[in-house]
Design goal:
It is built from six helices and ten strands. With 247 residues, the protein is of the alpha+beta class. A hairpin with a 5-residue loop joins strand 5 and strand 6. Helix 4 packs antiparallel against helix 5. The chain is globular, with a radius of gyration of 18 Å.
């Protein structure tokens, strides 16, 4: 995720509630800070209005009932098939839905023995990705009210089974070779529906996002990249530079 705050605000027609800083990263890891886009109903002279905002959240959702934020490292993804029932996600999917912008993501292919080859999955054009996500607020009981960090904003990305390859695209055959799960992308129309805070049929929204994955991912490309991406201490544009695959 290497887009600037101003570019994200323009792309999503969003505003800031507070000033945020989002350093570019080519190797986002669980618990790192990532941008999210959400919509809220705010009271404006007693007349509620819908506002779209850009926030920074910790990747790995921390449920409001968690005793500490450590659980978030295991909540970076939410399975769309069970998101309506899982205690960690069922409240968020009804009222705290968000969009998670990214430029692409990495996946690893298992080779002979212990060999693995990383791949970079990204759109074919100049546009970025936007994944269906959830967000949650967690209150740190060890910090006094009003102190920075008293409230932690976190997020998770919805996933689904990788669609089987079809005649309309070959990308899904390549994705299936890498992993049996795929993060759920959204086009603009789907995102508008997903973010709407007044929409109350969460099941229908999840179905909408799942049904649009083939169209939203039709122009994705898969390129082999260097194994340096496997170390979170490595971070720079060279990580997405294509290299010859090992196998």
């Amino acid at each position: 995720m290497a887009r600037a705050v101003g570019d994200l605000l323009a792309e999503f027609d969003a505003e800031l509630e507070d000033e945020v800083s989002i350093p570019p990263s080519w190797n986002v890891a669980p618990t790192d800070a990532v941008p999210i886009v959400l919509e809220r109903l705010v009271d404006d002279n007693a007349a509620p209005r819908q506002v779209r905002q850009l926030h920074v959240a910790r990747w790995g959702l921390v449920p409001s009932w968690a005793k500490d934020p450590g659980i978030g490292s295991r909540m970076i993804n939410a399975r769309s098939e069970s998101v309506l029932e899982k205690p960690a996600f069922r409240k968020a999917v009804k009222s705290r839905r968000c969009a998670v912008p990214a430029d692409g993501y990495y996946e690893w292919k298992q080779g002979p023995g212990k060999a693995k080859q990383p791949y970079y999955v990204h759109p074919g054009g100049e546009h970025g990705l936007v994944f269906a996500g959830l967000y949650e607020w967690w209150k740190d009981p060890s910090l006094p009210e009003g102190q920075p960090g008293h409230w932690l904003l976190s997020t998770s990305i919805l996933t689904a089974d990788t669609p089987p390859p079809g005649t309309e695209s070959t990308i899904f055959g390549k994705l299936t070779e890498l992993h049996d799960r795929v993060p759920l992308p959204m086009d603009k129309t789907t995102m508008e529906a997903w973010l709407d805070p007044q929409a109350d049929d969460a099941a229908a929204l999840v179905d909408l996002v799942r049904s649009g994955v083939k169209d939203a991912a039709a122009d994705w490309q898969v390129e082999s990249v260097g194994k340096e991406v496997g170390n979170v201490r490595n971070n720079g544009p060279e990580l997405i530079r294509p290299v010859e695959a090992l196998f």
